[in-house]
Specification:
Number of strands: 7
Low-confidence stretches: 41-47
Order of helices and strands: HHEEEEEEE
Structural class: alpha+beta
Mean pLDDT: 79
Shape: extended
Helix content: 25-40%
Length: 156
């Protein structure tokens, strides 16, 4: 019976921990947001394709930077765009900058659980989530996201 009591106590502690965690997680309350209209025809940069019609990592980043710049203009005061890179295996990187390393290769600089990191990946193996986050007091003015495309540095 002692093992059953220990197990029951363990399960009870896990439930308490889960309840505590649920109470601490608060969704960001924002007014309804609309993503900017961004079509390939509206992009101001020329497409970079290889012989098979594949799109370059630089083109992906140019379009992403343009979308973020437009979205930033439409977000309410006190909110900024942020990027989260989702890599193979569920790795989540809070992105500070993206760089084109080759035709299909990208470098993602950012943080995993607060620790700085860098990931080199083929553009097809990474998903980029763009979301709105609240600007917290020490972070004024808004933080920008860096891009390096064709060797040129830019901010969005």
């Amino acid at each position: 019976m002692a093992d059953n009591d220990r197990y029951a106590a363990h399960v009870a502690r896990q439930r308490q921990d889960q309840d505590l965690l649920k109470a601490q997680i608060r969704p960001l309350a924002l007014p309804e947001l609309r993503l900017p209209e961004c079509t390939p025809a509206a992009a101001s940069c020329a497409s970079a394709h290889d012989a098979d019609g594949q799109q370059s990592a630089g083109e992906l980043m140019r379009r992403l930077a343009g979308t973020i710049t437009q979205w930033r203009k439409e977000l309410p005061q006190g909110v900024q765009p942020a990027l989260l890179a989702l890599a193979h295996g569920g790795v989540q990187i809070s992105v500070t900058s993206l760089a084109q390393e080759s035709f299909h290769g990208i470098r993602i600089d950012g943080h995993i659980n607060g620790a700085p990191c860098m990931l080199l990946a083929h553009q097809a193996t990474v998903q980029i989530l763009c979301y709105a986050e609240e600007i917290k007091p020490p972070e004024q003015p808004k933080r920008s996201i860096g891009f390096v495309i064709d060797g040129e540095h830019s901010q969005a």
